[in-house]
Design a protein that fits this description.
137 residues; rod-shaped; two-stranded antiparallel sheet
Length: 137
């Protein structure tokens, strides 16, 4: 059994042009028939170009992949929801902490202000004494 140029292209996954160039350059030996077609021995063809592996139907594989991907997507969505809830809980805790810290800060400011101001009672006004007692006006 020998390949035609078209059969050889299908068997190797190469184009007919690529195989024709290989025949013309001498990389592959082929017999040219009277009608211009080529006859290529399989061993000669596969010496240079490895055969294409058998292709399995993709539909069952795609269904399995689709199911696996949908399961993964559902798991990722659940994980995302859990992370969002956790983030909201942490955000609420941080807001409470910030409010407590601001309250403490305001108390410390009031205490510092009261410590820095002079809190002694005002001294009474000095009694005005006259220097010249003999000079009364």
């Amino acid at each position: 059994m020998s390949y035609t140029l078209g059969d050889a292209a299908k068997a190797t996954g190469k184009s007919k042009t690529t195989l024709h160039r290989a025949i013309k350059s001498g990389r592959i030996s082929a017999i040219k028939a009277e009608d211009g077609s080529y006859s290529i021995e399989p061993s000669e063809l596969h010496r240079v170009f490895p055969p294409v592996t058998a292709v399995t139907p993709l539909e069952p594989l795609l269904r399995d992949d689709e199911e696996r991907l949908s399961n993964t997507l559902a798991a990722l969505r659940i994980q995302l929801e859990m992370q969002e809830k956790e983030r909201e809980r942490e955000r609420a805790l941080l807001q409470e902490t910030i409010a407590d810290l601001r309250e403490d800060r305001d108390k410390w400011r009031q205490q510092a202000a009261s410590l820095l101001t002079d809190q002694r009672p005002e001294p009474p006004a000095p009694i005005r004494r006259r220097w010249w007692r003999w000079r009364k006006s």
